[in-house]
């Protein structure tokens, strides 16, 4: 039903290791590419998109809606069988509903082939609901390394962080209060690091800092980060990751804390 081949999958492994925050993930092959979504958690939702042009071959042999659940930890451990040695290739295949996911990894320099099969599970109980439409009010696109630096500047002992997007200066503001007191960092919409700033009206909400810190595991591989907010305070973050002149994406949604 589905086959795909990737010449060098190190960046794929690094990104999946960075988002490995839950035991299971949903794999959904689509015409436009492969989508991996972590099982829904209480206050975050994470998806990784691998566009079909990232793969040397990408084929869907079924008109059916294909999706299946796998153990993400097992998947990433299989991808790391060769460690940092060489540039192995990867072939994924899924024969039919209920079949295991097949991984064939070839180490070309050493002429070693590793064949793995990972058990798959039904996704009948998974609600595939897109949250993107809820984050349609304000949006900023900024270089990822700058946003990473801003997160590091905040007090690491803080439990919560406030995010504010405004049509007025200083425009984008992160505020955290920890043992060292209040720390505030800002980005102007006129900064050279900002490529897009759209703000219809001021929005701000509080989030658990631990949820934002999860981004640090993947930010180092990213070139751009898109931050969007909606009326409900839902925070949408999209990371753009370049790999051999091709791009993959990580989408991350965080619900705001309820405040009085």
Secondary-structure map:
Layout: E1 2-6, H1 10-18, E2 24-30, E3 33-38, E4 44-51, E5 57-60, E6 68-71, H2 72-79, E7 89-94, E8 101-107, E9 112-118, E10 138-143, H3 144-153, E11 160-165, E12 172-178, E13 181-187, E14 194-199, E15 203-208, H4 209-213, H5 216-219, E16 222-229, E17 235-243, E18 246-254
Antiparallel strand pairs: 1-5, 1-7, 2-3, 2-6, 3-4, 4-18, 7-8, 8-9, 10-14, 10-16, 11-12, 11-15, 12-13, 16-17, 17-18
Give an overview of the whole structure.
This protein is mainly beta. Helix content is 14%, strand content 45%. The protein contains 5 helices and 18 strands. It has helices at residues 10-18, 72-79, 144-153, 209-213, 216-219; strands spanning 2-6, 24-30, 33-38, 44-51, 57-60, 68-71, 89-94, 101-107, 112-118, 138-143, 160-165, 172-178, 181-187, 194-199, 203-208, 222-229, 235-243, 246-254. It has a 9-stranded antiparallel β-sheet. Strands 5-1-7-8-9 form a 5-stranded antiparallel β-sheet, covered by helices on one side. Helix 1 (10-18) runs antiparallel to helix 2 (72-79). It starts with a strand and ends in a 6-residue tail after the last strand.
């Amino acid at each position: 039903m589905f086959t795909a081949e990737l010449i060098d999958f190190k960046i794929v492994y690094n990104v999946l290791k960075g988002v490995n925050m839950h035991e299971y993930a949903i794999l959904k092959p689509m015409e436009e590419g492969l989508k991996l979504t972590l099982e829904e958690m209480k206050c975050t939702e994470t998806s990784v998109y691998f566009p079909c042009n990232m793969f040397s071959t990408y084929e869907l042999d079924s008109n059916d809606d294909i999706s299946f659940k796998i153990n993400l930890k097992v998947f990433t451990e299989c991808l790391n069988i060769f460690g940092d040695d060489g540039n192995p290739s990867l072939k994924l295949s899924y024969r039919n509903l209920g079949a295991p996911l097949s991984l064939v990894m070839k180490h070309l320099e050493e002429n070693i082939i590793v064949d793995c099969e990972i058990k798959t599970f039904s996704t009948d109980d998974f609600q595939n609901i897109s949250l993107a439409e809820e984050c349609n009010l304000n949006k900023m696109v900024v270089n990822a390394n700058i946003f990473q630096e801003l997160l590091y500047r905040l007090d690491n002992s803080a439990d919560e962080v406030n995010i504010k997007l405004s049509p007025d200066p200083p425009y984008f503001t992160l505020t955290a209060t920890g043992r060292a007191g209040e720390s505030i960092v800002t980005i102007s919409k006129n900064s050279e690091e900002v490529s897009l700033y759209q703000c219809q009206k001021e929005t701000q909400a509080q989030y658990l800092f631990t949820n934002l810190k999860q981004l640090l595991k993947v930010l180092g591989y990213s070139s751009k980060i898109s931050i969007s907010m909606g009326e409900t305070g839902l925070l949408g973050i999209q990371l753009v990751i370049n790999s051999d002149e091709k791009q993959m994406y990580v989408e991350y949604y965080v619900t705001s804390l309820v405040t009085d």
